[in-house]
Amino acid sequence: MFKRIWIAACLITLIMVVFIVRLAWLQLMPASSSASVLTPQASRGGWQRLSVLQRQRNLVLDSGRGDFYDRFGIPVTGETYSSAALFPVAPKERGSDEGLKKLSGVLGVTEEQLLQKWDAVREPVFWKAESGLQPIRLTKAQIDNIKSLNLNGIRVLPYRNRYLPDFEAKHWIGFTSQHPEWLQREYANELAAGKRKLAEQVGGSGLEKSLDKLLHGVGPTSVSYFMDGRNAPMQGLDMRITQPGNLYYPLKTITTIDLKLQNEIEAYLDAQGLQEGAVVVLDASNADIIAMVSRPKLKPGQFMTADGTEWENHALRAVAPGSVFKLVTEAAALETGVVRRKETFLCNGEYGKYGLSCWKEGGHGRLTLQEGLAQSCNILFATLAERLQAAELQRTAEALGIGLQAGWHRDQAFGPFGGPLRLLEEEEAGQLFAPVRSNSKGRLAGGSEAVDSGAASASKRGGKLDGARKARDRAATLAAVDGGVLAQSGIGQRDVRMTPLQAANLIVTLLNGGRVMEPRLVSEIRYANGQRMVKLPAQRAQSSGRIKPATAYALLRGMQAVVDHGTGRSIRQGLWRVAGKSGTAETIRAGSARNHQWFAGYGPVKKPRYAIAVLAENKPPGSDNQATKLFRGIMDIAARHDESHRADPS
To answer: Given pLDDT bands bounded at 50, 70 and 90, which one contains residue 646?
Structure first.
């Protein structure tokens, strides 16, 4: 008898051990092949995760992505509001017909429309209006009414909206989109570890892209609604909110933008009908970007052109600058001593070669250097350019930040970024002369070739050019420049390309006696609790050389003459006395002649606060310079803005 009891006890113990081992296997080891239909991220959690997935429906309330703030701490992105969420509950489990009828009235639809939409739900969704892209924003009365109905499968939940009401998309912020190929290339390890998902939103342009690694955060906040196998709510469980336990996230990116001024400028440009172009407003003291506007408007998810050109930031795209580049030509002439400041020039309207003439029929007569800038005389500046060596003009352009990416960057690993950082990834470098490549023996190969802005030499080895090859290509480019190229380049035509950001920064450089700064768009990044993570200090550009303060002063005086009695005299009257340089560059679009219209300047003249560059692209030849008019209007907006800010600093 005792023996039989002992044998039975051993069998029971053995069976229990087998079950315990099996349970441990299911709980602790990765999922078996039965879970292979899921993604690697889902299967990693094992049977425990699968069992939960069978009885809950998840809805993401907040992606955990970091937000942007302006220089005064005003949110540019990010707000939380209450919305209605639908869960795929079986129709007979939702509640009474009377309750559903009342719900349809609260949501502003017919009962048939409500049920039709609810029946189509397979995964939890927020309720959206027919024409809306975002979940509806519930009023307090709507919230109270929905809660009082006691229906199953609909709940009032907090929704984190990335873009504020009436938000006009900003090119400098950019947009987010799904990009699984990029994620697989850049974050393969994090995908494998389940820290990122292929379907998540990532930065597609602007700061959303350049700061994506930090903005991504540490995970989403989601709500789980528990249901059984018949899609009936599991009574007593209802909902559970899951969120990251790290209180330091999401991060706060503090930009240098003045959001109120930015929005006022955007509204003004739209009212004035700017269809294509850009405006850049920089702090005159350190080149911080106060406002940056690009047109056409950015409409994330609603791209209207096949090539997506509307999402290009025109403030960072280099085009022919026209007479604005005459500032660089004059600087080069003064720096090299090929001109005397009191020297006079005769303009009879025709240069006599290269088919070049002055914009003023019959010419300007005899002009001094300062008057030549004020009247934007092509003959005078072509003459100056031909006196220069190509290398001299190139060297001065680079000393003024032209032909180089201007925006704030670090080439080495920086802070939490774990590598180099460039805040404005899309920025083009521009150029002075079209690149010419040399062959391995240093001879010219392929001749001179005009290329679009920011293009490097076509000669590459393994995706990079070594220093010796770059030097040969640079020498080849300069060697190919003849008198005709110099004359046309000196007036900002031919192959010269400049971005509005570079044009505004050129003005800041002159205001600071030749010291080139790097325009900064972000000043610091903070944790969710307000503690600083990293500071991005204002910094000087690592440009080669610097012009003399006396040269900068002469150019500033010339820009004052432009507005006082020169080509910019139409904007002499305004809230502030201003100075600057206009420009008109000839171009071709779709086989038709067009003009790029420019104005770059500063104000007020006595104590400069802002440097502003305005570009109106592809305007009809012979039309009034819209950029000049816009510059005056924007400077007046800035003057009123400064006055109101001083009156109410809060």
So the answer is: confident
Pairing of strands 365-368, 610-619: unpaired
Interhelix angle for 140-149 vs 97-107, to 10°?
Answer: 170
Angle 626-647/259-272 helices, nearest 10 degrees?
A: 150
Looking at the domain assignment, is residue 89 inside a domain? yes
Q: What is the pLDDT of residue 29?
A: 57
Give the single-character DSSP code of 251.
-
Full DSSP string of 274-296: --SEEEEEEETTT--EEEEEEES
Pairing of strands 67-69, 252-255: parallel
Domain that holds residue 451: 434-480
Tell me the backbone φ, ψ of residue 79, rounded to 5 degrees.
-155, 155
- Provide the domain count of the chain: 3
Taking the CB of residue 432, how many other CB atoms lie within 10 A of it?
A: 24
| Residue partners of 562: CB distance under 8 A and separation at least 6 | 373, 374, 376, 568, 579, 580, 581, 582, 601
Token pair for 643: 């006055």
Q: 3-state DSSP call for residue 434?
A: coil
Give residue for tokens 């220069």. Answer: 388
Residue the block writes with tokens 């022919």: 320
- Cα 85 → chain centroid: 32
Same domain, 170 and 246: yes
Asked if 328 and 321 touch (Cβ cutoff 8 Å), the reply is: no
> CA dist 410 to 415, 542, 598, Å?
10, 10, 30
Q: Calculate the alpha carbon distances from 241 to 50, 197, 614 in Å.
A: 18, 20, 49
Q: Which two tokens stand for residue 628?
A: 């000049």
Q: Is residue 326 within 8 Å of residue 490, measured between CB atoms? A: yes
Sign of CA dihedral 269, 272, 277, 279: negative
Residues contacting 190, CB < 8 A, separation 6+: 196
DSSP element (H, E) containing 329: helix 326-336
Instruction: Give the pLDDT confidence of 388-417 residue by residue, as tens digits.
Output: 999 999 999 999 999 999 999 998 878 787
- Reported as a single tens digit per residue, the pLDDT across 386-396 is 999 999 999 99
Supply 321's token pair.
Answer: 């600058």
Note the Cα 585 to chain centre separation in Å: 26
Task: Give the burial class of 80: count Cβ atoms within 10 A of its Cβ; 0-12 exposed, 13-18 middle, 19 or more buried.
Answer: exposed
How far is the C-alpha of 294 from the C-alpha of 298, rounded, in Å? 8
Q: Decide if 519 is inside a domain.
A: yes
CATH of the domain at 585: 3.40.710.10
* Residue 127 burial (CB count, 10 A): 18
Buried b (16+ CB within 10 A) or exposed e, 563-594: beebbbeebeebbbebbbbbbbbebeeeeeeb
Please report the pLDDT score of residue 300 as a whole number: 60
Q: State how far the Cα of 309 lies from the Cα of 409, in Å rounded to an integer.
A: 25
Q: Is 17 within the bounds of a domain?
A: no
Residues sharing a CB contact under 8 Å with residue 530, sequence separation 6 or more, in sequence order: 252
Distance of CA 120 to the CA centre of its chain: 37
pTM reported for the whole predicted model? 0.83
Pairing, β 437-438 against β 421-422: unpaired
